[in-house]
Amino acid sequence: MSPHFFHSAVLHRSDRNRRLKRIAFFMSIVSASAVSVLAQDGVNTRQAWQVLDTEPEVLVNAQGLAQRNLSIRGGSYTGSGLSINGLRLKSPYSAHWNAEFPILGNLLSVPTVGTGIDNASGHLVGTADFSTRPLGDARQVYAGLGTKEHYAGGIYASSENVGGYFDWEKARRIDSPENDLERSAGGAVFRIATEEWNIDLIAAGQSKDYGAYGYYGQTNDVSHLLDDTLLYAGATRGDTDDAFVRISAFYRDMRDQVLDVSTPDYTDIFSRNFAAAAEGRTMEIQHLALYVRGDLEYERVSGSIPDDDRTRGSLLFLPEARFERFTVKAGVNSVFQTAESTDFLPIAGIDWFLTDNGVVSLSYTETEQQPDFQTLENNPLLEQQHSKNTELGFKQYLSENSDWKIGAFFRTLENASDWIGGTATDLGRLNISGLDAAFSYYPNEQLRLSVYYQWVYKDNKIEDGLYETDYPEHLLNLSAYWHFLEQFSVQFSQTTRLQTENSVRTGDDFGALATLGLHYSPSFAQNARLSFLVDNLWGSNFQSIPGLKSRPTTVFTGLSVNW
User: Fold this and answer.
1) Helix (H, G, I), strand (E, B), or coil: what is residue 339?
2) What mean pLDDT comes out for the span 405-419?
3) CB 361 within 8 A of CB 395
4) Predicted TM-score (pTM) of this structure
């Protein structure tokens, strides 16, 4: 190799690294701005879904205050979910619990939403990934009350390496006279930072007792008692955007007790889930690097249903070639599952740094998953779902204060399913097309504005499904945060959507759901913060799930004190 060639390669790599660092710098400004908004008090960021409500790429379809279904790019609740440090969290019995997260929401970083090549080891369609972060020295107590006899309170404290919390909530007649809620959660977080490794340990639990009349397409007077325990351990060496090694594992135990008051029928179902992953990327040598990841999952259900268990494993190899303005990735994810043959799923993508601050991305990936045990209990003939995903996007950081992006996606979902008339129904092949675009403006920590639009089309003819075939064809989200004067700040989010036609929905296909928060930090008590929150600001009667009565306009007032 000639000295001239080596010298050119070093210059090209240096230019590209500077470009990557500049883009990463802009991204850090975005994240820091969002974190400053979310971490100010525990009144409105106690649960993961409250944090996700600020992320327009994740649609949160609520059933009262107790249960929420996630949707990413028009996907069903079965194809969207959460992860922590890249390790996918699951609820083996019912994917309705994919949004459950017993860890306090503001203990973790603002989630990043992964689809396509960023979701090769995630949920079927998309994953909201929470990351652990340095704890810092903080102590906070918070309490609040609102309409519908809604009460909440909690305490949180942390030092540099350890933190703990307790959170409690109670409400009555949330959306129907039968639907009350009482929830409590607690846990501890440990972080050990050495010169080379960050080690995180989390132990968290949650208990939730709630009425579910009208939920899940049912009209019976049903009561749920859900107990959820999560243990997590992880260790990371290096920067995940560069050469790194990360090992993580979790154990999750869920118990769902259901009482049908009108029968009365009682079921008691246990779900246990263990997962572990090891991943890493080598240093770049002569433009080349290799990303490797191995996953192992074990799921088991028992109780009022027949005992069943299954195992899933995967091994992903993704070589990367990095040049001055291009990064090319191509590899394979081999997946083996109980009762299924081993599949080799292709992964390929290219990033073209069109400008110093803008990148064009094109990717093709395939993902697959078996239906949850609840779905298989209803229809044991359903086969595993297989998704073929193509994405094309462009993202540009216009300045240190603004960015925008636009993307197109197409996926073919084999063996798609939906709940129709109380039955898990095989839809066969489903083709989904879509576009989304976003613009964000964040001149400082006192102001942040964002706009997000999404269009989705599915070639299905079903008009009475509850989840996969019921989706927003058009969705527009406007959100703002403004810290004005010295003591006041305001948060606003408006999600407007035009839902596909559905014969089960008894209201309009048009919905305009808005939330408003006003926060006051008095000058005479700088460690205190008073919050005034309004949900469903315009009193919309839109049914986020067909046939489900919407919550009325509610008001909640909270006080947090730091010391």
Assistant:
1) coil
2) 97
3) yes
4) 0.89
